[in-house]
Amino acid sequence: MSKMERPFDEELKALKQKLLEMAVSAEEQIARAARALKDREENLACQVLEREEAVNLLDVEIDEMCMRLLALRQPLATDLRFITSAMKISSDLERIADLAV
Questions:
Q1: What is the distance between the alpha carbons of residues 30 and 34, in angstroms, rounded to a whole number?
Q2: 81-85, long-range: CB < 8 A, 24+ apart
Q3: What is the per-residue pLDDT across 16-55, written as a single tens digit (0 to 9) for each?
Q4: Where are the alpha helices (H) located in 1-101, listed in sequence order?
Q5: What's the whole-model pTM score?
Q6: Is there a contact between 22 and 93 (Cβ–Cβ < 8 Å)?
Q7: Beta-carbon neighbour count of residue 10 at 10 Å?
Q8: In a 10 Å sphere around its CB, with 0-12 CB exposed, 13-18 middle and 19+ buried, how is residue 26 labelled?
């Protein structure tokens, strides 16, 4: 018998996926910036600038997801820790992407 996922579980899974997407974007930004600096590639540096807004938008989206989960689902224990950590992590990832610029 398979366990049915609750809507809350699906929302947590979506939050994890969005956080992973943001982490990958921030990592790519750092790699692009380092390569642009090392190889003196102006086009690559411009890509870093152009893609910064996408990371900023992910930060806002993650924050909104977290606030909605906190307000509507009133999570306990592990779920609460994950949601609050996700907010901190997204803030740090946004800062990392800013530093790439």
A1: 6
A2: 82/12, 82/15, 83/12, 83/15
A3: 999 999 999 999 999 999 999 999 999 999 999 999 999 9
A4: 7-39, 42-73, 77-100
A5: 0.89
A6: yes
A7: 10
A8: buried
